[in-house]
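User: I'm putting together notes for a lab meeting next week and I want to include a structural view of one of the chains we've been expressing. I don't have a solved structure, so I'd like a prediction I can at least talk through. The sequence is below, exactly as it appears in our construct file.
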Amino acid sequence: MLATIIFILILSLLIIVHEFGHFIAARRNGVRVEQFSLGFGPKIFKKKKGDTQYSISLIPLGGFVKMAGDSLPEYKGNLDEYLSKPCGRRFQIIFFGPFLNYILGFLFFVAVLFIGYPTLTTKVGGLIEGYGAKAAGLEIGDRITAVDGNKVKFWEDLQGQIKKRKSSHRVELDVTRADKELKFHVFIREKVLDNQLGEKRALGIIGISPVDEVVEVRHNFLESLGLGLKKTFDLTIMTYKGLWMLISGKMSMKDSMTGPLGIFFITSNAAKMGLIAVMHLIAVLSISLAIFNLLPLPVLDGGHLFLLGVEKLRKKALSAKWEGVVNNIGFTLIISLALFVTYNDILRIYGNKLSKLFSK
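Assistant: Thanks for the context. Below is the predicted structure for the 360-residue chain, given as structure tokens.
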């Protein structure tokens, strides 16, 4: 039950922020907003204030802002209508939705870094036979403090230092053992592993695993801003790289996309881990939503921005007929994609249970 509530709250936050971006940009550019709606289906709340009707519907899987004169059949030529505004102003109105999602993700990253997050220490919890660490004489319980003179405090720092070194190299590890400071020269073995995007990468391995020792890491406000910006940038690059691999066929859609069911499953796991995990999830989802919305596909914000670019070049908008054709194609694509990712989520999450059920 708690996971369901958190899932609904997260989705609602992302949608409200996104639609508020369109809403505030429309108002600032003199466009009358007729509806601001959260969710779909039967309305459970509605209230009119000024020119705008605000409503909440039963199914919290989307939302929309309805502007006056935002389609050719409805356009009457009034100054407060969307289509009466020049391309530049309409660009602002469309772009501000995903832009606010992007800002929200960045701010949640900063909050996580500033409040504090759990991370593993560099204490050795396991040694793998046949690798350099055990051969060099490291023991379980040793705490690694430096790699080739570079100080390391956390497991991810240690991993980063080791992984970027190639095979046939060896590293000098500074180790604390029972209040004694020791040095070990450890040979690195190269191992080919899949990264987060499924790409094969050769990494340096010394054959150690962490112990279950976690500390909370906090950064000051300026550090949090800088690191939050870096995390946002890294996630953006990784997402666009993943999209390119998807388009080029180097990565399957089945392994790289998830829908509401998959997000609910991820949210459930994050809820069990605590507030910081949920906040980190919100950051990732918000930035991912912004990037997805900016793809140049019909119906999505990126598709509308693309058509604005076409209009700017042609010096005129598409006809009502062609606008309808484009929107129908986009709607079909989105529905097909939604059905595919939902089917994929069901197989990924419940596949084993379903196979056992049907095999009886």
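A couple of points you could mention at the meeting. The radius of gyration is 26 Å. Residues 354-358 have pLDDT under 50 and may be disordered.

User: Perfect, that's what I needed.
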